[in-house]
Structures are given as C-alpha cells and as structure tokens.
User: What shape does this take?
Amino acid sequence: MKIDPTSKADLSIQIAKAIREEIMAGTLRVDDRLPSETELCEHFAVSRSTVREALKRLAAQNLIRTQRGASGGAFVNRLSYDQARGHHVTTSTLLMSMNEVDFQTACEARFALERACAPLAVHRRTADHLATMRVEIYRQGQPGLSDESFCDSDVAFHRALVDSAGNDVLSYQLAGAVEATQPLMNMITFSARSREKIIELHTAIADAVENRDADTVDAKLGELSAYTLQLKDNVAKARSERKKS
Amino acid sequence: MKIDPTSKADLSIQIAKAIREEIMAGTLRVDDRLPSETELCEHFAVSRSTVREALKRLAAQNLIRTQRGASGGAFVNRLSYDQARGHHVTTSTLLMSMNEVDFQTACEARFALERACAPLAVHRRTADHLATMRVEIYRQGQPGLSDESFCDSDVAFHRALVDSAGNDVLSYQLAGAVEATQPLMNMITFSARSREKIIELHTAIADAVENRDADTVDAKLGELSAYTLQLKDNVAKARSERKKS
DNA sequence: CCGCCCATTAATGTCAGACAATTATTACAG
DNA sequence: CTGTAATAATTGTCTGACATTAATGGGCGG
Assistant: This one.
C-alpha cells in the first residue's frame, strides 16, 4: 500500500498497481468502498489528477465502479462473467488481427476447444439450449438473410453449444476462442461457402446433442473444421488464379 | 469519431470508446501515432484532464502506449501475447475468486481444455518443451521444496504441455484456465496431496508426449483430474470431521 | 568536415485550485 | 408526519501552471 516516488514508473501506474494488489489479495473485497479521492491524495501524497488517472485505469479493467454524490465514491466491482466475456472477446479479436494470426491456427484452436466441450454438452444440455440451437438453425435457413446476420446466428449457435456444457468457467474461456475467431473465419470464407452444407452440419450437431451422442458431435465438429479449412483453400486458390490472369 | 456532450455517460468514457472503435476498425493501425493531447482537446472540445483520463483507460487495456518528449505521444500498441496473457490470467483469477466458483467447475473446465491440447501436443512437441517438462518434474522431486515453489513448478509444467501444442492462440486461451485455476486448486489441496503421486503422473504424461501417445496423455490427465477431485473430497471430509468434534 | 555540447521545442507527467453536477442526509415548515 | 429545501460530501470537468523527457538543430572547437 505504498508507492515509490523515486521510481521511474508513472505515479498513476504505481497507485493503480497498489490498489489492484489489494483487491487481488482480498484486503479490499467486493462492494467495499475505496477511500475518497481526497483521502487517496493524502495517503499517496500526490495530486488529485494523478489519483483520478489511477482510478480510471482500474475502472477500465472493470475492477472498480464509481458513483457521484454524498456517500458515493469508488467501489470494488464484482467482476461479472458478461463484462469479462466482452473484454475477453475484444482482446482476443485485436490480438488475432494485430498479430496476423494464421487462419489455420485460429481454426485449429477454436475447434480443439469446442470439441472439448462435447462430452459435457451432451451430458448437461437442457431443452433451452437445444431450442436456441434449433432457432438459430432455422434463422440460418431463411432466404434473404444477410451475410452479417448469418455470421451472428452462427456465433449464437456455437455459443449455445458451448453453454450447454453447463460450466461458466468453460463458457467464459471459450468465448475468446469462438466469438473472436468466428467472424474472422466468416469474413474469409463467406463468399465461398455453402449455407446448406453448414446448416446440415449444424443440424447433425444439434441432433447428436439431443441424443447425447458425444462421438457424433465430435465428428461433425471435425467435419465443420475440415470444411472451413477447405473453403479457405479454395479462396486462396481463386485468389492466385486471379493474380495470374 | 464524435462524442455526445448531452449523454449522461462520462466524457472520458465516450472519448475512450471513440478511439477504441477506431483501433478496432483499423482506422488507427499498430504504431500509428494518435493526435497529441492538446489536439484531442480541441477535437473533442474538452479539457486536457478529460482527454488524459480517456487515454489512461486505453492504456490500462494495453491498447496504447505513451512516450514523453518531442516526437512522443500516444501510439497504438501491438497487443502481445504475453501482455494479453497477463491480463487474462488476472481477470480469470478474480472472476473465480469473486464469484466463488465451485472447485469442481474450475477443475472440470481446466482439464477439459488441457485434454483438448493433447493430440496437437504429441504431434508438435519439440525437444525444448520436453526438456522444460523434465526440468520441472525434477524440481518437484527436490526435498525441501516449499509448497509455493511446488505450485509454481506445477503451473510451469502444465504450461509447457500446453505450449507444446504449438498454437499461440490456444496457449493464450488456456492460460486463463490453467494458470488461474491451478493456484486455486493447489491452495485447496496442497495440504493433503502426495507429491509422489503427482510426480508419477507428470512423468507418465511427459513420457507419453515424448512417445507421441495422445491417448495416454489424455488418460493420465484424466487420472490427475480424478485425483485432484478426490483430494478435494478428502479435505472436505476432514473439515466436517473437525467441525463435529 | 566531423563530433560534441547545449539551447530549443514539443510532448507527456504532475500539481493546485476552482466550479459543476449529483446524491444522501438533515432541518424545517406546513 | 410529510414534503421540500438547504447542506454536505463526492465525483466530474475545466483552467493554468510547472516539471520532466527526449528529439532536433545550431554553434563551437578540433
């Protein structure tokens, strides 16, 4: 709970770190109120702007929330799965676009993880999950559906599949892999793909989940993966053809 | 690239959002320099403190970095896997501690994901990965090793296993599951566990990876999972015994 | 002509103080 | 007792200043 004014690191970084560590260590618990900005100024012997920049850093990570008015202040935030998922997907998406992740690498990771859910999913799936999957499959079959909407529905289908494993931790971790790579895959391949083929595979997966047949789910996810990679190949070939001419 | 001054949301949040969207959309690319704080003030018609708070928010997400001096400024940051992994682990850890995640849930998620790596790991493991695993197993066998060091080594072992799948995306996604749940599991069970049993399983896993035997890796990870859950049971029983007396 | 030192300059980092906006509490009037 | 207005506490924003850092260019000496 101290900072080193001689350190070369920015003060607001040090302060944010000090507070973050208290939260991680449990000294500050969920819904605890932090000292007011003025008190933090005194404690760390810095100006209010510096304290505020530190608090904004923490707020950006969803670690705290602030409230104005009397008996307001900064409170330790309960990290919700939804908030965390949003962040996770954003970061994963940027990570992949900025590092020019190989299509095959992303695809491999995504399906490896999704297949890991299959045994749990067939075991725990509820009627709700099945219904969601069926609805999305129906949507995907609608004529006139835009490519963007098809992508969205695709993501929703796979998310329902993952969620049906009934494990929040798993759902959270997979959000990054599935939701961040899916659009990437869609953008690359949607010009070339056959919606019928994908809907057929989705239907087979939903059926297998309903029948609690993990092996078939796994196999069909494998087919989907292979089909996606093949599409990518076709697109690449078409591109080099065009280059030649 | 505009903000709405009549919105109830804080200005610094709106500004951060506007810039974040430009980064996500690719308008601002990696290593691009943002306008200086003064220019951003004029552009958004706000004060410098507000702009700075917005920039700190982005910096907290590793989206930008800042540099002082002439020709300094804020630059779009290339998200590195290491930075992102650190964040991911921190968030996952907090998520699990704050939401009081069931031990079994965490354990289930972690092993399901790790087992998904097995087929890739046996295929792509290098001598380096094997060496790391062997070294960690050796460390784990040292008498007098503290519980904390044993935990660290355990994490390092599993990380080497995951990394040997040779897929950066996979390694990143799994960091959250493995590195965040492992300490939780260790804290709960390390009083009761037998290091010999764990070292034996680790050795079997390393051997199987070396022999490219995915099924055995999978089986041994399953045993490790079962053993961990059994330990947890023992601890729980011992606790209720103590309560009775 | 080359290299070193230094002033300049442009940028972020920090500070101080003020006012605005918001909200819970308290006091007061009816 | 109730509704309303004053009050106080707190975060949000603005302004202006100075400190710190680092690239740049110019002068000066070799």
Notes: The first strand of chain A starts at residue 64 and ends at 67. The radius of gyration of chain A is 24 Å. Residues 10-12, 46-50, 53, 67-72 of chain A lie near DNA strand C (CB under 10 Å from a C1').
